[in-house]
Design goal:
The chain is mainly α. The chain has 7 helices and 2 strands, in the order ααααββααα. A hairpin with a 2-residue loop joins strand 1 and strand 2.
């Protein structure tokens, strides 16, 4: 039986029967492409996600950023240090609480994010190339909604750790 629409399944295959495998394949391919494209950004995709939230969302403090991205605060500190050392973000005192620090993108950080977002969007189109173009946006939107719902019920889950737990281990060179 020939299938003309890659999103239509043959009648003898149940939808959702390989849901975990499907998500794993998409995630692995996304990670392979995006990590390669973002290798010049401190901490790769993790640095990208932090920079994107700092630029696009109103996150009041470093602690709130850790909560928003579900990243351990001690890990976040190291990533922010590296992003700051690269001139992409800076810490500023919070005018409401001198003990707290706001994370703000620099102009260089904003420009870097624009270029990174362009590269990531291109990679995502490649990863989702098996879907018609209109359905790629729907897939992204539904995945974002599902992720936000999951994050709301399990806010302490570090998504980067979750990703690493489903990706195959990096092969170590033999000596």
């Amino acid at each position: 039986m020939s299938v003309t629409d890659p999103c239509e399944l043959p009648a003898d295959r149940e939808r959702g029967s390989n849901f975990g495998w499907s998500l794993g394949m998409v995630l692995r391919r996304w990670h392979e492409h995006v990590e390669e494209l973002l290798k010049d950004l401190p901490h790769g995709s993790r640095g990208y996600h932090i920079l994107a939230v700092v630029v696009h969302e109103e996150v009041p403090t470093q602690g709130a950023l850790a909560t928003r991205l579900a990243i351990d605060r001690s890990v976040l500190t190291y990533v922010i240090d590296d992003l700051a050392n690269a001139g992409l973000i800076e810490r500023r005192p919070d005018p409401q609480d001198r003990r707290a620090r706001r994370i703000v993108a620099t102009e260089r950080g904003r420009q870097t994010l624009i270029e990174a977002e362009r590269r990531v969007a291109h990679a995502e189109d490649h990863v989702l190339g098996g879907l018609p173009e209109k359905q790629r946006g729907v897939f992204r939107d539904l995945a974002a909604r599902a992720a936000e719902a999951i994050h709301a019920t399990a806010p302490a889950t570090d998504p980067c750790v979750a990703v690493q737990s489903v990706l195959p281990p990096t092969e170590q060179p033999t000596q």
